[in-house]
Amino acid sequence: MRFRSTLSLRARALLIGAFSLAAALPGAMSPAHAADAFPSRPVKLVVPYPPGGGNDVLARIVAPKLAEELKQQVYIENRGGAGGTIGTTAVAQAAPDGYTILIINTLPHTSAAGLYPSLPYDPIKSFAPIGEFATVSYMLAVNPKLPVHTVKDFVDLANAKPGSINYGSAGNGSATHLAAELFKSVTKAQVSHIPYKGGGQALTDLMANQVQATFENVAALVPYVQPGTLRGIAVTGPKRVALFPSLPTVAESGYPGFDVSGKFGLVAPAGTPADVIAVLNKALNRALTDPDLVKRLAAQGAEATTSTPAAYDELIRKESAVWLKVVRDTNIKSD
Predict the structure, then answer these.
(1) Where are the beta strands (DSSP E) in the chain?
(2) Mind telling me which residue stretches traverse the membrane in this protein (predicted)?
(3) pLDDT recorded at residue 143
(4) Same domain, yes or no: 102 and 73
């Protein structure tokens, strides 16, 4: 009996040691401890467009500071194509562990549900919002030969001579197309749409007066409006833009409440643990307190913005309601 008792005690000691060793192994960590360790490897930030576009530029401004706050590498992966839906699909289908995240502009992100009938993800349900980090206004800009200087001038001329003003966009269903169609819906301006294969081509023809106007994001128009190659008429966001303080908003030009702006932020795949989302949100918001980061965003016409995951989720849902209605009401189809 004594032998058995001694053997039992030894067995217990071995078992306790085995459990202690298992608990010390990384794969056996409790969920709480695993979250504490996040991130333990590099984080991939997917840009669902080719290099050089607005999403890409903003992502490359934010990523280094985000990496500094996370104390882990944050690297960019461009997955362009199909209006941003290829890269977005890849993130929707990625492991929900916080190591694959996505930059979105709420305008094209939410409108995709109405533009692509067979979209393999839900713009809201397939993602867990991390937070907003920048707001970018769009601008109504015209060729200087067009005799208009205000929103009223523009609308009056468009309606006095229907068909005389054509606006160029980056393509059917693009953010620039949707921005213009909402403007048309609100102001009743009779302008015609000319879609291009990208915003660059639209701007080239605008400077050549092949089209007379565009609704492009402020960052893309800075090199043309500042020297006077194109004329800015108004910005489409809720307030004036620091780069062009003399330009009024469409809202203050007679259309209260008008707001077309890109709300840029980060999202993760749905199902990502809340504590991991909290780590990412905290790092993002801390990054946005850096004056140099804020200055670099401002140089792109972007205003630094912070939010909670819940607030960004609410914003995405509101934007979805607005842009799906625009798509339905105007019967816009993607290219």
Answers:
(1) 43-47, 74-78, 100-105, 127-142, 166-169, 192-195, 213-217, 231-235, 261-269, 302-304
(2) none
(3) 98
(4) yes
